[in-house]
């Protein structure tokens, strides 16, 4: 969306603020310590449109969130104005969304940029007791909710949001390291499911992961659609399971797969695993769920040879 279009859109759809808090969202972001995000808003000349009468909702990554980005991503934000504007506007809703008891799990809300953000609410258990809830936006934790401004509310996040590349299937097709998986899910009839509404979670083995398999097993999977489908559906779960949700499952860390099997998930701040196998790339946001990249194939019990096709 072009900058001028955004300005006109915000000004024309806004209602008038009442001036109760004497601060608008861009300045509030700086006030709560999200100074890197606030500076990017100024660099992108979005301060005025995002100070227009709301109501709006802003998701403001804290400074540590930007520290965690790769040098390449930071370079992109610092040198590509179009990408910067798109990313910033993906953090803003043209409505007021409060984080409260009525917030629904797996709720999709459209952003000013266009694609929706996904809100997840995970129950947190400790020693089998429900001790609270954690809310995430595209897998990023809401650290501070419902900070008030004259033109809306601001929620502080522990991560930067990036617009999704599309559905799970779109993401697989775009990744040059996932060609075997992409062909496999297509061959066994899973592409439409991964291209649907979801929500789904996929633990996506890379090409290198498949090539680490014993040669006879790899050949069997490539020639036996029954065996291949059994393995691939073992990598897919219903629901959006970002790694932050793994924390919440400490009382029962099992997820059921489409193959009706179970996988065990665990996570820390720096390490997440499924069946004690490290997740190589965590929490890739897509429009119908989440992708976790795996450098090892998860293996359920494989059908016997007489089922070969």
Automatic annotation (TrEMBL):
Residues 21-161, 165-298 form the FAS1 domain. GO terms for molecular function: cell adhesion molecule binding. It comes from the Eukaryota. Residues 1-19 form the signal peptide. Keywords: Signal. One of its GO terms (cellular component) is extracellular space. It holds the Pfam family Fasciclin. GO terms for biological process: cell adhesion; extracellular matrix organization. SUPFAM superfamilies: FAS1 domain. PANTHER family: FI05614P, PERIOSTIN-RELATED. This is Periostin. It comes from Mizuhopecten yessoensis (Japanese scallop).
